[in-house]
């Protein structure tokens, strides 16, 4: 079937392509190993509809479920979702507590599907200060899915890029203090190994929804050479076709890593 624009060439996909065509197109090329997403715009989505912000978070959970399925379908090895930052604690108390209970429920209810899809859940962030119910929920699902060998889902929760680097610096300082490591010996590899998920490759592609052109304290060390893709679409409206479109765009880029 000759569909306009569905050439085998990698790169930006024509706007008229549907989800199935986009999927076929991106699958014909090398799929990135690791995609990270700043899931932004839940509040605006709700406000535009005259709804309370938490209604946007509820829809945002559904969008996350859709994208986890799409990432699995696509065959990604790693998907990192920015769910709650260390700065998000500064939001009104009722928004924070609703977000916590939404997350707690979502994590529990996802377990059967994660198992069926062979998805492994891991937490990116530290558990200090996280309500016990949420912490136990994440730990339980991470434990149950630990031997799954398909997609690894990294949930960036109570995550801050600066916090992560501070934690790594502390760990290295302890090693220096113990006489295991000299200050001059510290290399990029030592820092990388002291991060929360040292065994996970840096993201190839970073997506941000809702149009903001900022990093908001996400994966500061890891995104040194990550490709960015920003869409005005608000997170609750972001679907599988949007993910495939971002990947198609990524596939058409030349990564140079400072070379020629
Ligand atoms: C992202 O949506 C979800 C979280 C940060 C938890 P926001 O809540 O930031 O939505 P906007 O950016 O205010 O629209
Ligand atoms: C980043 O979004 C954090 C998450 C998506 C979890 P924010 O909405 O918190 O970021 P800013 O405040 O717009 O920079
Ligand atoms: Mg926001």
Can you describe this structure?
The structure is a single chain. The protein is of the alpha/beta class. It has a domain at 32-160 and 203-251: Decaprenyl diphosphate synthase-like (Undecaprenyl pyrophosphate synthetase). It is 42% helix and 13% strand. It has eight helices and six strands. The protein has helices at 19-27, 42-47, 53-74, 93-116, 132-144, 161-177, 188-193, 240-251; strands spanning 34-38, 78-85, 120-124, 152-159, 205-208, 227-230. A six-stranded parallel β-sheet has the order 3-4-2-1-5-6, sandwiched between helices. α5 (132-144) links the parallel β3 (120-124) and β4. α1 runs parallel beside α8. The model is unreliable at 1-7 (pLDDT under 50). The site of one 3-methylbut-3-enyl trihydrogen diphosphate has 12 residues, from α2.
């Amino acid at each position: 079937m000759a569909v306009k624009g569905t050439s085998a060439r990698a790169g930006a996909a024509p706007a008229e392509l549907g989800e199935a065509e986009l999927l076929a197109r991106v699958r014909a090329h090398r799929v990135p190993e690791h995609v990270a997403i700043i899931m932004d715009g839940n509040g605006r989505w709700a406000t535009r509809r005259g709804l309370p912000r938490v209604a946007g978070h509820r829809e945002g959970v559904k969008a996350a479920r859709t994208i986890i399925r799409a990432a699995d379908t696509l065959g990604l090895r790693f998907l990192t979702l920015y769910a709650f930052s260390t700065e998000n604690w500064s939001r009104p108390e009722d928004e924070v507590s609703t977000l916590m209970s939404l997350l707690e429920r979502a994590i529990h209810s996802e377990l059967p599907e994660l198992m069926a899809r062979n998805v492994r859940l891991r937490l990116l962030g530290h558990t200090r200060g996280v309500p016990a119910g949420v912490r136990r929920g994440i730990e339980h699902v991470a434990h149950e899915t630990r031997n799954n060998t398909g997609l690894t889902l990294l949930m960036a929760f109570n995550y801050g890029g600066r916090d992560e680097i501070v934690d790594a610096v502390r760990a290295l300082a302890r090693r220096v203090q113990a006489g295991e490591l000299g200050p001059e010996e510290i290399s990029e590899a030592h820092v990388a190994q002291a991060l929360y998920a040292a065994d996970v490759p840096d993201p190839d592609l970073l997506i941000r929804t809702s149009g903001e052109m900022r990093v908001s304290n996400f994966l500061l060390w890891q995104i040194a050479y990550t490709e960015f893709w920003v869409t005005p679409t608000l997170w609750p409206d972001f679907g599988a076709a949007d993910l495939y479109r971002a990947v198609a765009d990524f596939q058409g880029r030349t990564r140079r890593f400072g070379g020629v």
